[in-house]
Amino acid sequence: MTLDKPIAVVSIAGVYRTGKSYLVNKLLKTKQAGFQTGSTTQSVTKGLNMWGRPVMAEDEYGNEMLYLVIDSEGIGSCEQEIKYDIKLLMLVFLISSTVVYNSMGAID
Q: Are strands 48-50 and 55-58 parallel, antiparallel or unpaired?
C-alpha cells in the first residue's frame, strides 16, 4: 500500500474496562472483527494494538487523510503497576496526533 496522503495517529486511552475497544470498533464502522473486546473484569487489550491498515477519511477542512488507529491497554487495573500505566500512557501521548481519553465519569 502506498501512503501518498498525510498521516495522523489517533489513539484511545483511559481506565481499564470502560469500553475503549468497543468505542473504536463503532467509530471504525468495520464489518471485520475489529479490536477484541471482553465481557469480564479481565483486560483483553495488552499494550498497544494498531488497526491493520490506515483508514482513509477527510479532515475538518475536507482534505483526504490516512489515520492510523491505536487501541491501548486500560490504565488502573490490578494486573499492572502504576509505573507501567504511566509509561504506556506517555507512549500513547508521544506517538499520537490525537488522543481520545475514554472515561465513564469525571477524569481523576
A: unpaired
* Model pLDDT for residues 78-97, shown as the tens digit of each residue: 778 899 989 999 999 999 99
The enclosing domain of 44 has a CATH number of 3.40.50.300
CB atoms inside a 10 Å sphere around CB 49: 17
17 lies in some domain: yes
Q: In angstroms, what CA-CA distances link 74 with 27, 33, 67, 88, 97? A: 18, 20, 21, 9, 19
Say how far apart CA 41 and CA 59 lie, in whole Å: 36
The enclosing H or E element of 85 equals helix 82-95
Position 84 in a domain: yes
Q: What is the pLDDT of residues 9-30, one digit of tens each?
A: 999 898 887 778 777 777 777 6
Contact, 44 vs 38, CB < 8 A?
A: yes
Looking at per-residue pLDDT, the higher value among 36 and 13 belongs to 13
